[in-house]
Amino acid sequence: MAFLFDKFKDMFKEKTGEEFTKNEKEYVIIYFANSNPKSSSKTIFYGAMRCLRAFYPLPVVKAMVQGEVKKAFQKEKAPKSIKKLYKEFAEIIFDAAMEKNISNTIKWDEKS
Predict the structure, then answer these.
(1) Is 78 helix (H, G, I), strand (E, B) or coil?
(2) Which residue from 24, 33, 68, 103 lies 20 to 30 Å from 46 (Cα-Cα)?
(3) CA triplet 89, 91, 96: central angle to 5 degrees?
(4) DSSP 88
(5) 52-70 burial: b if 16+ Cβ within 10 Å, else e
(6) pLDDT tens digits, one per residue of 6-58
(7) pTM of the complete model
């Protein structure tokens, strides 16, 4: 999950046409990237992984991730420019959870 900051940064630049400001970068690094052991994105990521392993329907997991990201942004007082892109941030976390889930499934199949 260490690569998520780069994905967040690239997505932000693609959507807004600008780089992170100092305030936005600081927020993403401190509260939402993988630098903090209890970061919001890590908590949301592992929650999504649990749901995927329990065979929850994908649209339900995706909606849950979007809701959790939106709630985290409000709770942590994220900058407005980042709050507007909560669905895109959620999509990155959901995609990472899906990739991890698939790679774990392949590893289990190889052991069998």
Answers:
(1) coil
(2) 24
(3) 100
(4) H
(5) beeeeeeeebbebbbebbb
(6) 889 999 999 999 999 999 988 888 888 766 677 888 889 999 999 999 999 99
(7) 0.86
